[in-house]
Amino acid sequence: MITALSGGTGSVKLLRGLYKLGINDVTVIANVGDNIWFEGLYICPDIDTVMYALAGLLDEKKGWGIRNDTFHFLEQIAKYGCETWFNIGDKDLATHVVRTAMLKSGLPLSIITEKLRLKLGIRWRILPASDYHIETRILTQSGEDLHLQEFWVKRKAIDEVKDVIYRGANNAKPAQGVVESIMNSKGLIICPANPVTSISPILAIPTIKEALKMTSAKVVCVSPISGSAPFSGPAGKLMSGLGLKVSSITVAKLYSEFLDVFFIDKVDANLKDEIERLGIKPFITDIVMRNEEDEEKLALEILKCLGEDE
Length: 310
Ligand code: FO1
Prior knowledge:
By secondary structure, the protein is of the alpha/beta class. It is 40% helix and 19% strand. It has a single domain, classed as Rossmann fold.
């Protein structure tokens, strides 16, 4: 059994590679810190990006949403004076409407996600890190307190970042099955995801962090950074704002309490000794996933590392 900690756009490239290799017993634990209530709908971008990627529906150009979607819903709500900065496509809307209705009927997010992924024919389990609402908030130098989506999508990351907090995480419980999956897995993969907004909100749930430290699973991470550039999203801006160097070494330090093997890019081969000094085994390879072939190649290297390739 394998457990993968996942964000959205960057993570799903690796997940898709693993999925296409045909392995079955995988649980994806998805970040919930970027979930947002928007015009009465509960939107879970990372859960949805994972579902759409594994179901073959993802708009790969954008890295989120459904391929060939239309935006008539958004055009219509604009006429009613509603907010339209968050681009919800018409097919994507179906997911949010169904999820929101189920939430309002009293079902927890984990059960709803299980129902949705089964309906989409996805053979892996996808668990939200928590059924609690956790919000990644960006505190700006000018004193504002923004939801991650406001910072990233509405204001296009123009604000100077002072701090990032995971509101609600400290008191949140992991969703049913999360801790069991971490404890019972043979291998645990931390996807190439933004450390500040995708993985840290999961680690901010105390019971999950403890489970990661205690599990006997081999913990492997693929760096989301090559050289000084993150593969996608606002990682660079957020890490700099927090006074962190935008480098794979920073990611290694963040995960050093539980990380066993760290996959870094060839351009970062010079970090080898520093990573070893943290007690982590570096694995130097081509981690840039430009196409499906790259995704499967990297996925296979990870399976070999976890001893799951037979
Ligand atoms: N990202 C954008 O850059 N612009 C959008 O308008 C946008 C809408 C959107 C709607 C649904 C969804 O599931 C994701 C969406 N994203 C959008 C992606 C999202 O903002 C982030 O990339 C993730 O939250 C970070 O993982």
